[in-house]
Amino acid sequence: MLFNISPANLSDHATDLLVIALPTGEPAPVAANLFQTLTAQGDFSGKSGESVSVPAAAETAAKRLLFVGLGDADKLTAKALDKAAQAIASAAVKKGIERVTLAPQSALNAGFYRQLGLHLGLKAYQYTQTFGTKELPTASTLARIDVPEHLDEVQRGHQIAQGANLTRELGNLPANTCTPTYLANQAKQLSHPKLNVEVLGEDAMRQLGMHSLLSVGHGSDQESQLAVMRFTNGGDEAPIALVGKGITFDTGGISLKPGAGMDEMKYDMCGAATVLGVMQAACELDLPLNIVAVIACAENMPSGRATKPGDVVTSMSGQTIEILNTDAEGRLVLCDALTFIQQENPSCIVDMATLTGACIIALGHHNTGLLGNDDALADELLAAGRDAMDTAWRLPISEEYDKQLDSNFADMGNIGGRDAGTITAACFLSRFVKNTPWAHLDIAGTAWTSGKAKGATGRPVPLLMNWLLKRAG
After folding, report:
1. pLDDT at residue number 138
2. Between β-strands 99-102 and 144-147, what pairing exists: parallel, antiparallel or unpaired?
3. Which is catalytic among the residues 257, 308, 386, 394?
4. How far apart are CA 298 and CA 295, in angstroms?
5. Known catalytic residue: 257?
6. How far is Cα 367 from Cα 358, in angstroms, rounded to an integer?
7. Going by C-beta distance under 8 Å and a sequence separation of 6 or more, which residues neighbour residue 42?
8. Three-state secondary-structure class, residue 234
């Protein structure tokens, strides 16, 4: 997709769709007669989220006009601007639209233009990989968009969307395609002169003492993998560490899940897919940062070799774990990945995982759960999520919750009972972090959508990219 600056004379500008975004009560800068007719008929008022598309008739050289409402000019919010960006993107990727032009509007800021680029990329995504003879909807033909300013922000948002779309594509793939080896090898597809990728198999992990991670894949015929991505584009600065859970299918193991909805457990690798999406966007944007990223990939299956409830394993840290529930496997791969990544002496660690159903009960599908040991890091991530409209909500961690992990037979159990399941899962992970500033993102409620619109969402790639962009300055 090409991005260009809008021409000064819009009345004579030939485009498929001319977009005019307006606060409530503001007159249109072009097509004034048509606009007056629409407002007089009550078809458009400028309220936030409102949009109307009409043929341009003879008033401009455009084929169609799209009027988009921004709401009260004195009360414009990031959410209102995001709604407008979504409305424009939805109209722009329809069949037959090849070129879109935005009219100048002083109410639109840099954040709006980044969200516009993001939504243009997200709306254009279409999953096609595993269809056979079924006729699919026509893909978007949008090839060019003209904006009056902040061209760099539109491009940046669009590149972030490509990272999120990689996350969506990997999440949407079936587990018989997206195996641990397939997922880990996606790291090798990333390209940047300052990126080095290493993939460790089970023998290498066994030598490192990663028996917690390895225990998850005991019941599977698929070999567990650990992919390490070292992006050294930030000089001598200590790296930012990213860790993702990559359970490519989660049956629950011996603690077998109910059959209904189990197909959605192919999305249990969306933490790892998020890391890959973020790393792709970081490479494309050439961020001046050092980042070390690890994805821990395994398949959780029941078999005669599978880990059993009551088994005790030794993690890479030397701490022992009584596995009380084999369906609490995500923390078992993450804890060894967290120990591993601390060898890189990171400045901070952010892990992301579809970790607990309890997070969906607590926060629904609107907010990612955020927990951690460092207030400043947590505040950075929360602010980045608000700005990117990819929001998170912080939950507490304290000694009272941590005690729920006590075990009679090991240093800890892998579950702490039904109460506060999201928090006790984070307490478990915190035991492997030591004193490094750390945040945990539980994306169980935000990484995918169920029902008729089932599919991976690409969250929280926008949150994390907004955070990294601010870190990059």
Report:
1. 86
2. parallel
3. 257
4. 10
5. yes
6. 13
7. none
8. coil
Name residues whose C-beta falls within 8 Å of residue 116's C-beta, 6 or more positions apart in sequence.
Answer: 85, 88, 89, 147, 154, 157
Q: Between these two residues, 74 and 319, which has the higher pLDDT value? A: 319
- Residue tagged 């019941």 (tokens): 219
Instruction: Answer whether residue 317 shows pLDDT above 80.
Output: yes
CA dihedral 382, 387, 392, 397 (to 10 degrees): 0
Q: What is the C-alpha separation between 369 and 381, in angstroms, rounded?
A: 11
- pTM over 0.90? The answer is yes
Cβ within 8 Å of residue 442, ≥6 positions away: 353, 354, 355, 356, 359, 368, 369, 370, 371, 422, 425, 426
Is 144 labeled as catalytic in the residue annotation?
Answer: no
- Two tokens at 60? 């401009």
Nearest of 161, 14, 177, 12 to residue 86 by alpha carbon:
161
448 three-class SS: strand
Instruction: State the Cα–Cα distance between residues 144 and 4, nearest whole angstrom.
Output: 7
- C-alpha 137: how far from its chain's center? 25
From residue 3, how far is each of 112, 144, 154 by CA, in Å? 15, 6, 8
**Which listed residue (331, 431, 459, 471) is catalytic?**
331
Count of helices and strands (H, E) across the chain: 14, 19
CA distances from 165 to 92, 121, 211, 226 (A): 18, 8, 33, 22
Report the alpha-carbon distance of residue 156 to residue 151 in Å, rounded: 9
Q: Each residue of 115-157: pLDDT tens digit?
A: 999 999 999 999 999 999 999 988 899 999 999 999 999 999 9
Q: Is the dihedral of CA 398, 404, 409, 415 positive or negative?
A: negative
Q: What share of the chain is helix, strand, coil (3-state, %, to 5)?
A: 35, 20, 40
What lies within 8 Å, CB to CB, of 362 at 6+ separation is: 369, 395, 422
Residue 299, CA atoms < 13 Å, CB-side half-sphere: 22
Dist CA 244 CA 338 (whole Å): 10
Evaluate if residue 57 carries a pLDDT over 80. no
Mode of pairing for the β-strands spanning 64-71 and 51-55: antiparallel
What are the structural domains of the chain?
A: 2-128+142-147 (3.40.220.10), 160-472 (3.40.630.10)
Q: How many Cα atoms are found within 13 Å in the side-chain-facing hemisphere of 463?
A: 29
Q: What count of other Cβ atoms lies within 10 Å of the Cβ of residue 98? A: 13
DSSP structure string for 268-292: GGHHHHHHHHHHHHHHHTT-S-EEE
Segment 409-427, tens digit of pLDDT: 999 999 999 999 999 999 9
